[in-house]
Write a structure and sequence with these properties.
Order of helices and strands: HEEHHEHEEHEEHEE
Helix content: 25-40%
Strand order of the largest sheet: 5-6-7-9-8
Shape: globular
Oligomer: single chain
Strand content: 25-35%
Length: 236
């Protein structure tokens, strides 16, 4: 069967992604799966609407290549993923949103629920330290902003829908060109990531998610995927 008539699952299952050494700090599998399935029809239409020259596979591969992460070590090896992999879903969803003009890079200008991709100097705050916001490093967030973030975290703890009777959240933030973005990372989605090894490292913190709302000096984004990139090698 020609690429033009392949289903989106068949097309995307054949994609390869550049090998990457970037540390993944957070992947929300349930949220990613819901958002991906919500856009699957649009991705399917996109994959079948390309010009016949090159076919759907070639066009979609080119788009995904623009949105995926390059190897931190300059390697050219690739690995195959299928759509049951959460990171593959995140990369393909980003690729489609970028191609459709639905991926915002200026958080303050984005509307509520818009998909946002930002990156910049930032960091992580361990759940044990979040309530003690006055002791957060001053060059990370202002005391006022840290207090507001800590209050937001406590609100999420009180409203938690997880079966965990005592939910905990890491605070991630990135000082992007369009303003500071903050995301709270539930511990359930950091268990199988590298957050513990890289929590206090430098580099560029990148956040992909959906905008929730603005405060005076920061924007809250509901995270789908959070990672660190070495300085000077960013694609975010």
């Amino acid at each position: 069967m020609s690429p033009w008539y392949e289903s989106v699952q068949e097309t995307l299952n054949q994609l390869t992604f550049p090998q990457t050494g970037y540390p993944n700090l957070y992947l929300n599998q349930k949220r990613l799966g819901d958002r991906f399935l919500g856009k699957l029809g649009a991705i399917d239409t996109f994959s079948k609407s390309v010009e016949t020259t090159g076919g759907a596979n070639a066009k979609l591969k080119a788009v995904v290549a623009e949105a995926t992460l390059e190897s931190a070590r300059g390697r050219h090896a690739t690995i195959n993923w299928n759509l049951s992999d959460s990171l593959a879903q995140a990369l393909v969803l980003r690729a489609y949103l970028e191609s459709a003009g639905e991926l915002r890079t200026e958080p303050r200008a984005a509307m509520m629920m818009d998909f946002v991709l930002v990156g910049g100097p930032g960091g992580l705050v361990h759940p044990d330290f979040v309530p003690d916001h006055a002791n957060w490093p001053r060059n990370d967030l202002s005391v006022k902003a840290a207090s507001e973030v800590a209050d937001e975290v406590q609100k999420q703890v009180r409203l938690g829908t997880s079966p965990d009777h005592a939910p905990a959240y890491w605070v991630s933030f990135a000082h992007a060109a369009g303003g500071t973005v903050v995301s709270t990372l539930g511990t359930g989605s950091v268990i199988q990531t590298e957050v513990r090894q890289w929590a206090w490292s430098g580099g560029k913190y990148c956040i992909f998610g959906q905008k929730v709302r603005d405060w005076d000096s920061w924007t809250l984004v509901s995270p789908l995927h959070v990672w660190i990139e070495p300085p000077g090698r960013s694609r975010a």
